[in-house]
Amino acid sequence: MRLLTNCLALLTWARVPKPGVLLMGVTVLSTVAEALPYSPALQNKYDIKSAVSRATTISALEETFLQAPAEESTRENVENWITLGLFLFIIACSLIFEMAFDSTEEFLTYRGVTSLLKMLRGAYKELTILGFISLTSFATVRLGQMQRLNDTYLGVSKTEAAALREATEAGETLSPPTHLTEVFEEIHVLIFIIMFLFILAAAVFTLVGYRLLRKYEYFDAKTETDLRNDVTMLQTSADVSEQHVNESLIYWGLRQRFIYPSIPLVPRPRERETGYPQFSFSDYISYCFGETLTGMVELPPSILIISFFIVLLLRPALDLSGREIIVFMILMAFALLGMTALAMMYTRYINEKLQPHSAKLREFFGEKRASSDQMRQAIAAPIDDR
């Protein structure tokens, strides 16, 4: 009797999710116990323990019958609210993104910044492509293609076999976790991170580009008289920023070097003709800046083909062990950082070679009358010393 009661108590303590089976077990065990021969000694010896075990069994069965439907209902309710919340969150994010994109597009169209508008549309197109790539990887995993490919070439792991057995017993059709499924999920997350960084970079480029173009338009509107007044004010009262004056003078010097190049073979802007607007150096810079950003955002097919071959060349790195591949990734990150630093240093070096000296320009505009030779000397750049 003690053994049968303890077995029932163990089944009840294990919370078998079938209360009807537990009740049937109580009935069967009670019938068997009544059929056993009666022994007063054993009855007196285990009377207290039997009563405690019987009481524990009854209380556990009551808790099972009462709590199981409540727990199932609570879980279903929470799951429904989570599903609804996720749908609302995705819809809200989509609306915010569409409103932000439309507002930015209307603002750039109203301001006439066509170069940045082209870059923004290129970024939107690239985001659409990344979204389709992410959708394709998600559908490949959910439709079971990765599971069949994994079972064919990598075999069925113990985890996958256990998941399949539990899903079959529960009557579910969920795809079990496989190695290739985890790899595709990691790729899916990586694509999401790339999309986020892509949006952030496009937003930063748009903001910085708009501020630069507005500043160049302001510099382009300054006449030589305005520059002379700024230099005079800087020398007398210092009410104007020296950096602002230097930037205005350097911009004027670059514009003069572009419109009137010292080398005859260098192409120059055409003379103003009737019916055509006057040449604007700021608009030309805006166009070049927009084309550069568009090329950075909207990668040409040649860059994608080169990236394809680079990925193939990095295939042996996947055979490295855990620590070795971490060291390899760190070295690659520092290599990319070094290449970026070298590119920035080279850009600054070229910029310094092409820019006129601000001190010579201040000296030129500080004089009341200056000849053409003095202007040629003022706009001279270090690259002319070759």
Automatic annotation (TrEMBL):
Keywords: Membrane, Transmembrane, Transmembrane helix. The chain crosses the membrane at residues 81-101, 122-141, 187-213, 299-318, 324-346. This is EF hand domain-containing protein. It comes from Toxoplasma gondii.
